[in-house]
Amino acid sequence: xxxxxxxxxxxxxxxxxxxxxxxxxxxxxxxxxxxxxxxxxxxxxxxxxxxxxxxxxxxxxxxxxxxxxxxxxxxxxxxxxxxxxxxxxxxxxxxxxxxxxxxxxxxxxxxxxxxxxxxxxxxxxxxxxxxxxxxxxxxxxxxxxxxxxxxxxxxxxxxxxxxxxxxxxxxxxxxxxxxxxxxxxxxxxxxxxxxxxxxxxxxxxxxxxxxxxxxxxxxxxxxxxxxxxxxxxxxxxxxxxxxxxxxxxxxxxxxxxxxxxxxxxxxxxxxxxxxxxxxxxxxxxxxxxxxxxxxxxxxxxxxxxxxxxxxxxxxxxxxxxxxxxxxxxxxxxxxx
Length: 336
Fold this sequence. Notes:
Number of domains: 2
CATH topology of the largest domain: Rossmann fold
Helix content: 25-40%
CATH architecture of the largest domain: 3-Layer(aba) Sandwich
Oligomer: single chain
Radius of gyration: 20 Å
Mean pLDDT: 85
CATH class of the largest domain: Alpha Beta
Shape: globular
Structural class: alpha/beta
Largest sheet: 4 strands, parallel
Distance between the termini: 27 Å
């Protein structure tokens, strides 16, 4: 598997004198803080916006300062950029991107970036408008919005942004990132192509591994119930029935009738386990366990899954491939 990559950097860093923006002005920071904190909370349930424009050509010095929103994307970008890129991740382990609010440190990081990459499709709900405005001064690109509309999943008229749960689809994002970097930094094209080729091959092997592991779960037991509806791409790709207590976004509370409805389904179908997520409160899953107990059915919490964020840095689940393997092993152990 692909390894030997440099580590991701911390969220904030001091201003760079070589950046074309130069030193940050107090007024500029104040304006952007207001923009990032006060834009309407769109959640991840809005319609897909227009495709992003081709990035401008990089004219600075290597490494390119790249800011990414979530760990899964940073891991992918880092694998392709190699030593030509320095990656900063805004949203670390345990962070829910649907509800994320930018800090003043994030603002400084964004203003000092050469290139901003985010998933889009309103995953980073509150920050979507800010990224669009930042794109007027530097490339700010929603990589998920380069995936053809026909390959995206929808629910209740909304686009599902959780692309990374289908490993094959995530390799399409890798190809898009490769092209973005080549367009932005043509002198690095050969390296970007080579590293992307290796990464895409590794993702193909991972996809096959996931299929082999899921096959260990009897077909009638392939039911995944989690805190929110993040695993639809996973379900479509690997033949799992996916049910979320909440919808695509976590911005609203689950209704009591929804809990009761799921308790009835679990009891009727004798589902053995449900799963918590690392970025979301356990209370709705615990309500399911209690509701099933009251009806004479023992429901286990099968383990914790990583959905909108990876695991802690320096651990196996702190990489995209490690996160996928952790989730699959957790499912297989609880459901087979």
